[in-house]
């Protein structure tokens, strides 16, 4: 299994190109199910999750072609074309590897009047149910059946009528599924307390480019007037605000200065606000966001929340940064119940963190020391890389398949700004 070896203590300086957003790409790709015409997505990140989603789309009879396969290219262009759907089943084998597969439920149902998708199951960061995905499309007129680990959704003859749903909890994925189900409904649908994440805005913008009629984009109340058909489009995936925030933490913990090229400050305000409170300079520039640190870090209290609050996907990376701050920080994770798996590993590197339920208390330490570490989820793995960049000596991060789900060519990007980092296969 591959591992990354980091020699800590190098100050990061220079420019890091920010890739297209994984979490946007994973909801834009299933939009290809909504039209017979080609959908071309530009700036797709090269990630294991994108490859997995491509396989899933192929399973439905959708053809996919990719440009930009030169090793030196960041980002790719994928054209998906679905003149005919040959299967409406998303099998366990593919869904198991990638939770976001559930996002085919809404568009498949909208196009074909039925969809059968394996239940994704729990995962490392928490239980992650899909009840709200199902309730929202039920409210639009679908019949749902659960059997043998699969969810089967059917629309009445003539298609989904559309309807209203008020989310009791803000859910990014359920909002996305509901939107993709509603765009081809016979009537008007309304979503209340919908998620407002920039990735949802990106999805709405693509759907509108395909001919959908959506009001309230960027707010928590969305009105979707169903249309008879959608057409193809060419669309550029938004920049990855979580990748950008992760590299901001990496630069900050080394006292470095980097330009996060392509990052959009307005989409990562909560992260930039947290960084400024920690004592980091963060400025928006024409072609990205500039991060500068002078080495001194201040403790802060942070709590995750749905957008525009602080993203849960930034919690682990900010915690790694705060291990080196002066004083004690308190972090509260309000979105997922089990998202502190990086804590024991960070403590093995010399951090001093205690957890109690959803709270983590981070007592800043003078120094971190390199260690062999591994984590069980994507952002937790990144937090170990960040700690490793500041640690004395060598850190080895294992189980890279987590990082490969969400960070395009991590070691190359870090090397660009002066990190001493190498990926090796040890088997
Ligand atoms: C591919 C993708 O975009 N993943 C992101 C998406 O995940 P995902 O869409 O899975 O996360 P949700 O926004 O749905 O989850 C938010 C909360 O709602 C709960 N919930 C969700 C659905 C449901 O049917 N019932 C329910 O109770 C979850 O357990 C969680 O406590 O948003 C999360 C929250 O910003 C991010 O951490 C993930 O990176
Ligand atoms: C939790 C994440 O992703 P996913 O929902 O794909 O597991 C993430 O991006 O941090």
UniProtKB/TrEMBL annotation:
The modification 2-(S-cysteinyl)pyruvic acid O-phosphothioketal is found at residue 123. The active site is at 123 (proton donor). Phosphoenolpyruvate binds at residues 22-23. It catalyses: phosphoenolpyruvate + UDP-N-acetyl-alpha-D-glucosamine = UDP-N-acetyl-3-O-(1-carboxyvinyl)-alpha-D-glucosamine + phosphate. Pathway: Cell wall biogenesis; peptidoglycan biosynthesis. Pfam families: EPSP_synthase (PF00275). Keywords: Cell cycle, Cell division, Cell shape, Cell wall biogenesis/degradation, Cytoplasm, Peptidoglycan synthesis, Pyruvate, Transferase. It is an enzyme of class 2 (transferase). InterPro entries: Enolpyruvate_Tfrase_dom, Enolpyruvate_Tfrase_sf, MurA_subfamily, RNA3'P_cycl/enolpyr_Trfase_a/b, UDP_GlcNAc_COvinyl_MurA. One of its GO terms (biological process) is UDP-N-acetylgalactosamine biosynthetic process. Its EC number is 2.5.1.7. Residues 7-414 form the Enolpyruvate transferase domain. The keyword Transport does not apply. One of its GO terms (cellular component) is cytoplasm. UDP-N-acetyl-alpha-D-glucosamine binds at residues 99, 128-132, 313, 335. It is found in: Cytoplasm. GO terms for molecular function: UDP-N-acetylglucosamine 1-carboxyvinyltransferase activity. NCBIfam families: murA, PRK09369.1. Belongs to the EPSP synthase family. MurA subfamily. Cell wall formation. Adds enolpyruvyl to UDP-N-acetylglucosamine. This is UDP-N-acetylglucosamine 1-carboxyvinyltransferase. It comes from Pelagerythrobacter aerophilus. The gene is murA.
């Amino acid at each position: 299994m591959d591992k990354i070896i980091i020699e800590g203590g190098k100050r990061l300086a220079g420019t890091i190109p920010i890739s297209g957003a994984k979490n946007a790409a994973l909801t834009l790709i299933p939009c290809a199910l909504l039209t017979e015409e080609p959908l071309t997505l530009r700036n797709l990140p090269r990630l294991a999750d994108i490859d997995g989603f491509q396989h899933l789309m192929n399973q439905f009879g959708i053809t996919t072609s990719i440009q930009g396969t030169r090793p030196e290219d960041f980002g790719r262009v994928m054209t998906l074309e679905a003149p005919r759907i040959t299967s409406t089943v998303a099998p366990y084998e593919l869904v198991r590897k990638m939770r976001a597969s559930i996002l085919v439920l809404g568009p498949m149902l909208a196009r074909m009047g039925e969809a059968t998708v394996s239940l994704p199951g729990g995962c490392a960061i928490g239980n992650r149910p899909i009840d709200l995905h199902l309730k929202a499309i039920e409210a639009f007129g679908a019949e749902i059946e659960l059997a043998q680990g699969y969810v089967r959704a059917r629309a009445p003859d003539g298609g989904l009528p559309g309807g209203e749903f008020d989310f009791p909890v803000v859910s990014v994925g359920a909002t996305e599924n509901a939107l993709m189900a509603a765009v081809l409904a016979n009537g008007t649908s309304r979503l209340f307390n919908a998620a407002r994440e920039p990735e949802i805005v990106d999805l709405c913008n693509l759907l509108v480019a395909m001919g959908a009629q959506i009001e309230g984009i960027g707010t928590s109340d969305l009105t979707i007037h169903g249309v008879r058909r959608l057409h193809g489009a060419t669309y550029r995936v938004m920049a990855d605000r979580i990748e950008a925030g992760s590299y901001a933490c990496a630069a900050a913990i080394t006292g470095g200065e980097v330009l996060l090229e392509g990052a959009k400050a307005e989409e990562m305000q909560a992260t930039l606000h947290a960084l400024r409170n920690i004592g980091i300079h963060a400025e928006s520039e024409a072609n990205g966001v500039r991060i500068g640190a002078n080495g001194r870090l201040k403790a802060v209290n942070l709590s995750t929340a749905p957008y525009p609050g602080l993203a849960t996907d930034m919690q682990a990376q900010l915690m790694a940064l705060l291990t080196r701050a002066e004083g004690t920080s308190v972090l509260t994770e309000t979105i997922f119940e089990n998202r502190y798996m990086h804590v024991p590993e960070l403590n093995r590197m010399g951090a001093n963190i205690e957890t109690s339920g959803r709270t983590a208390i981070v007592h800043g330490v003078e120094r971190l020391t390199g260690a062999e570490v591994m984590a069980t989820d994507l952002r937790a793995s990144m937090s170990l890389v960040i700690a490793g960049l500041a640690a004395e000596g060598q850190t080895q991060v294992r189980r890279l398949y987590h990082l490969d789900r969400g960070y395009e060519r991590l070691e190359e990007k870090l090397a660009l700004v002066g990190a001493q980092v190498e990926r090796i296969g040890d088997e």
